[in-house]
Design brief:
alpha+beta, Amino acid/polyamine transporter I, 5-stranded mixed beta barrel, 20 helices, 6 strands, globular
Length: 576
Amino acid sequence: MNNQRPTNDPFGDSNSSLARREGVRLGTTPMDSSRHDLTNRKAHFSLWDTVCIIVGIIIGTGIFKAPGSIFAMSSGPLEALAVWVVGGLLCVVGAFCFAELASTYPRSGGEYVYLTRAFGSWAGFLFAWGQLLIVRTGASVVVMAYVFADYTVKLMGIDEKAEWFPLTYALLALAPILWLTAINILGVREGKVTQNLLTVIKVAGLAGVVIVGLVWAREGKRDWRVVSGTVAAAGADSLMVQTDGHPSPVFVLTPRTKITLDGDEVKNWEQTDLRGVRVKVLSPPDEPFRAERVKLTTHSPFGALTLALIFVLWTYAGWHEGAYVAAEVENKRRNLPRALLLGTAAVIALYLLVNVAYLVGLGYDEAADSPAVAADVLKLAPGGFGDVGMCLLVMLSSLGAINGMLCTNSRIFAEFGKDHSLFAPLAWWHRRLGTPVVALLVQLAVSIATVVGVALAFKSHENFERLIAGTAPVFWLFFFATGVAFFVLRWQDRGIERPFTTPLYPLMPVLYCGCCGMMVVASAVALPWDAAAWLGILLLGVPLFWLSRYTPTTVEQANQQMHTVVGGMGLSKNDK
């Protein structure tokens, strides 16, 4: 068998050695978009380590709260589980596409590498700029840190009305970022051991939720009588529902009747014209015309399912994270596809089991009404440790997500620095520790600034959650662009060896692009002005890109600058 790599392989050693010999000016040559790492990175991550990164980032905090909303948006338990299955299959489609890209272009950086090679350095620049300032460091890491702070406050019983609470709250959010950044700076081994441990603990915790839900299912769950239709007429103490093909039943409303509109409780609802609004009425079997709960929704059945799918895909987010550490994965051309597919499949199976446990433990209607469904399931366990267990589980889960993102984010920014002179210091790795120290410190600085900004600017979680939701169009826009890049690279690099090829081509990448395109539109329509503001911030990267192109810095010059900096800090002269 001929083991000679094709001459047009973009990851042959010739490109990197040529870059070192000639001192390639960063961000100005076509070679930059296709070359391998300028220095060969040691393979630190095994298949197990890479799977733990993917699983640890996917299992953040969404699975503990989002299922209740997804149940409420679905017409029944089977439909809700079907949405989870569909969302999981879409993620598998994406994992197949990324498996081909990551094994063909095994340079760390994920979408940064693929967009740069397909469309040019400007596309990769805007992606990295958006991840640094908006999506990953500015939002994802910080939201996980604030979730950690939320549950620490609950666990410790901290008084939220105290004058010193805002400062304490911000410090609690900063603590995990500072601690985990330090661990990731100290070495790849320290970072991956921490990630593996946190991933195992959070998977074990979710397994505990499954056991509690299946074994200690709530006794006497009420078998509600459910009537669905549209509001025909409404009064202060009665509600007429128009059902398809049936007479319109009239339900009696009592002071105990809980009335919600799109999940929010409604007060003085009789003063609002609700005729034609879709409604679901729950009543006791022995009193079929006494409304216990009235659930109103302005969403069409298709719109409700689409919104449920958006929540599901948000909960599955992170299935592609292994691509960001591609250059450091052992036997990368074989293990990267395996890690992406195994990690995604494992989480899908676990999430389906967790949702079944929610339904068995609480019943569909109770689960749909729960704002914190996992906490309610854990309360079923004997001993009264449900609240404490929930706090600890969410805190550990958020730590695992933060640690994984700090690791993968830093690889994006390190690759970004190698290609663009304005950010060249980000490319510096500490030779002895084997970590991208500057990239880790820069994302720490951005995270600190975001935490402080949120503490000063927002007084409620509703506004902060809106801030996060507003970044979704940017997030999904780059996923969509990567799907388009898949087709471009298939045509542009048709002579390159592909160790793994996506099955059912072109169906799978078409499905992937369609899903991502839908998410871009849906998230932008939901908050159009927020989306426009964040897209405006993304476009601020355009002048920075042109400035970087005309800043004549070479790889060797960038390294020499870092030698000077670390020399002044008293670090080893052997550090790269």
